[in-house]
């Protein structure tokens, strides 16, 4: 009977060790699963934070870009306005002096006075 009780005790101990090993394995998988879950959650939080940061920087960039492009469009408007003013001034001076310049040119071309040049030497 002692041999039977020893066998039963050994069997009970073996069952207890197997149960302990199963529980230990479950804890490891739960902890590993918990780690995986925590890693996934951390990754999701990091991605959300990155997206938020990216949106903030994109917004700042667009504001700066609109300020720069807005000031450039203002500059181009000012330059265009100055060019138009200069064109109008040139057209006005053209119209004002056109007649007198044409008469001067025509008088210089048509009213020629033949003269001997000062540096000309007569060789006899």
Description:
This protein has 124 residues and is mainly alpha-helical. It is built from one helix and no strands. The longest helix is centred in the middle third of the chain and has 109 residues, at 2-110. The N and C termini lie far apart (169 Å). The mean pLDDT is 85. Residues 1-12 have a biased composition (Polar residues). It comes from Galeopterus variegatus (Malayan flying lemur). InterPro entries: V-ATPase_G. Residues 14-30 have a biased composition (Basic and acidic residues). This is V-type proton ATPase subunit G.
Question: What's the quick description here?
Answer:
The chain is an all-alpha fold.
* Contiguous runs where pLDDT drops below 50 for at least 5 residues: none
Beta strand count: 0
What separation lies between the terminal Cα atoms? 169 Å
Average pLDDT over all residues: 85
Rg, alpha carbons: 51 Å
């Amino acid at each position: 009977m002692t041999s039977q009780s020893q066998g039963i005790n050994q069997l009970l101990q073996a069952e207890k060790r197997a149960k302990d090993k199963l529980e230990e394995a479950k804890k490891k998988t739960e902890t590993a699963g918990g780690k995986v879950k925590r890693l996934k959650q951390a990754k999701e939080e990091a991605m959300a934070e990155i997206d938020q940061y990216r949106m903030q920087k994109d917004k700042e960039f667009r504001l700066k870009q609109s300020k720069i492009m807005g000031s450039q469009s203002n500059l181009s408007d000012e330059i265009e306005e100055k060019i138009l003013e200069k064109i109008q001034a040139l057209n006005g001076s053209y119209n004002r002096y056109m007649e007198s310049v044409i008469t001067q040119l025509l008088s210089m071309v048509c009213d020629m006075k033949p003269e001997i040049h000062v540096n000309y030497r007569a060789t006899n």
